[in-house]
Amino acid sequence: MIPYGRQDIRPEDISAVIEVLQSDFLTQGPAVPRFEAAVAKKVNAKFGVAMSNATCALHLACKALDLGPGDTLWTSPVTFVASANCALYCGANIDFVDIDSRTFNMCPDSLARKLELSRRNGCLPKVVVPVHMCGQSCDMARIAELADQYGFRVIEDASHTIGGSFQAEPVGSCRYSDITVFSFHPVKIITTGEGGMAMTNDGNLAGRLSSLRSHGITRDVSRMEKSPHGSWYYEQIDLGYNFRMTDLQAALGLSQLDRLEQYVSRRHELAERYDAALTGSSVQIPWRSKDSRSAFHLYVIRLSGAIAGERRRIVEELRNAGVSTNVHYIPVHTHPYYARLGFQSGDFPLAEQYYKEALTLPLYPQMTESQQEHVIDRLLKAVR
Ligand SMILES: *Cc1c(COP(=O)(O)O)cnc(C)c1O
Fold first, then answer.
1. How far apart are CA 16 and CA 6, in angstroms?
2. Radius of gyration, alpha carbons of the chain
3. Among 134, 162, 185, residue to substitute to test ligand 1 (most atoms within 8 Å of Cβ)
4. Mean pLDDT throughout 5-13?
């Protein structure tokens, strides 16, 4: 079976993990800060705070920005549920902004309209979470302008997008946001098994993120309320969690990070081959923004026109031919849990239309050209 995504683990990754297993520290050792510094350097951010996964990083990013009961967070309906759940973990309200059908990202014009309406009604969001779908950045310059104008904070959900850039600057630099979150789940661009990281240029936010990650405890004297009783002393200054990444994971991440550019280039090569093979067929290929270089986490086609409504059959035909596809994503507001919060089908029509038509084709660095030929051949037969 050709999967839709898959990690790439090399002998050097395995050696790096074994080295940690033979060292003094499996967790809270030197590999985690080394990985944090390496990612921060790679994406031009001042700080990186590694976590158990990106969901934890989104949760703590909201906490660090003091999102709480009575506040509201807005995100895109076309995302993994974690981008919205983070608001609910904090007791805040959640709402969505419909997508741009071309980018599949939150539409900046819809965001501007919704902000203006909400300003008049006195219910502006405290935090907005743009999601860089498939690895292509949102228009962050525009979103940052709106953030200035309406006074909200910005967390980029860049789970798909390490190695991507916007206006020639790496995603993660936080030039246009307060915090940017990466995921290192095995289907993403680089992996630590489970893992995530929150990037920021704000030293206070970095301090809060790292103390919240470890029970709300600090060993930093400048952050303490009392004077230390001795070298063992620490203070719990916040209610935090244990959302730490292990040193085994960090060592794997460090080793993977060396191949980030290679991975993204290979994804582009494969995406260009898909583009060429599918142009002129009945499927719609993904649009590329001139403002950004995608990390190409996902290659999503749309099935519309003559093949609208045929997705289920096409997915099954591909599956029978050994090709596993996927759909990213079921719009968050249509899940039963969100329906119970009052959302309805029809609330975000462009996201819902997108969901009817989207199909994610296999794409991962180790995919061979003959595997890709097979996918293309079977897809073209299925949509003919
Ligand atoms: C994968 C993903 C997450 C969650 O990442 P985990 O590391 O699995 O917690 C959040 N948002 C988006 C858009 C994702 O794709």
1. 20
2. 21
3. 185
4. 98
| pTM reported for the whole predicted model | 0.98
The whole-number pLDDT of residue 186 equals 97
Using CA atoms, how far residue 249 sits from 23, 25, 191, 353, 375, in Å, is 14, 12, 8, 38, 33
**Contact call for residues 190 and 297 (beta carbons, < 8 A):** no
Listed in order, strand segments (DSSP E) in 93-252 are: 93-96, 127-129, 153-157, 165-166, 169-170, 179-183, 196-200, 217-218, 235-236
Query: What's the average model confidence in pLDDT over 223-238?
Result: 95
**Do residues 197 and 36 make contact, with C-beta atoms less than 8 angstroms apart?**
yes
**Dist. CA 135–CA 15, nearest whole Å:** 29
Decide the pairing of beta strands 283-284 and 299-303: antiparallel
Alpha carbon separation from 228 to 74, 139, 207, 208, 236 (Å, rounded): 41, 46, 18, 19, 12
Burial of residue 252 (CB within 10 Å: 0-12, 13-18, 19+) is: buried
For ligand 1, whether the C-beta of 297 sits within 6 Å is: no
pLDDT tens per residue across span 42-99: 999 999 999 999 999 999 999 999 999 999 999 999 999 999 999 999 999 999 999 9
Distance between Cα 119 and ligand 1 center (Å): 30
What is the average pLDDT across 313-338? 98
The tokens for 171 are: 């995603």
One DSSP character per residue, 254-303 reads HHHHTTHHHHHHHHHHHHHHHHHHHTTSSEEPPP--TTEE---S-EEEEE
Relative to beta strand 72-75, strand 93-96 is parallel
> Does ligand 1 come within 6 angstroms of the Cβ of 138?
no
Q: Is 131 in the pocket of ligand 1 (CB under 6 A)?
A: yes
Q: Do 297 and 161 touch, CB atoms closer than 8 A?
A: yes
- pLDDT tens for 108-130 read 999 999 999 999 999 999 999 99
Q: Which pLDDT value is given to residue 23?
A: 98
How crowded is residue 236: how many other Cβ atoms within 10 Å of its Cβ? 12
Question: If you average pLDDT over every residue of the chain, what do you get?
Answer: 97
What Cα–Cα distance (Å) separates residue 48 from each residue in 30, 51, 120, 236, 260?
14, 10, 37, 21, 17
